[in-house]
Amino acid sequence: MIKEQMASASPLTLVIIGLVLFWFIFLGIVAWTFRKGSKQKYNEIADIPLETEE
């Protein structure tokens, strides 16, 4: 069923579907990166190479 629909779809339709899918994924990653409370976690991770092991 999906194979038949994809075969009959125009290339422009497939490009638009891909673009919309890309934007949703991109916006999801941006939202995840800048979510509330993430700055402290990223700062902790950034300081790991500077810590000394004794």
Explained architecture:
- This protein has 54 residues and is mostly helical.
- It has one domain (2-49).
- The chain is built from 3 helices and no strands.
- The protein starts with a helix and ends in an 8-residue tail after the last helix.
- 0% of the residues are buried.
Count of separate structural domains: 1
From the alpha carbons, calculate the radius of gyration and give it in angstroms: 21 Å
Helix content: over 70%
Separation, N- and C-terminal Cα atoms: 62 Å
Annotation, overall tally of beta strands:
0
Structural class: mainly alpha
Binned strand content: under 5%
Order of helices and strands: HHH
Major β-sheet profile: none
With helices defined by DSSP (H or I, 4 residues minimum), what is the helix count? 3
In the predicted model, the low-confidence regions spanning at least 5 consecutive residues are none
Mean pLDDT figure: 88
Task: Outline the secondary-structure elements.
Layout: H1 2-8, H2 11-33, H3 38-46
Q: Top keywords for this entry?
A:
elongated; 72% helix; 54 residues; mainly alpha
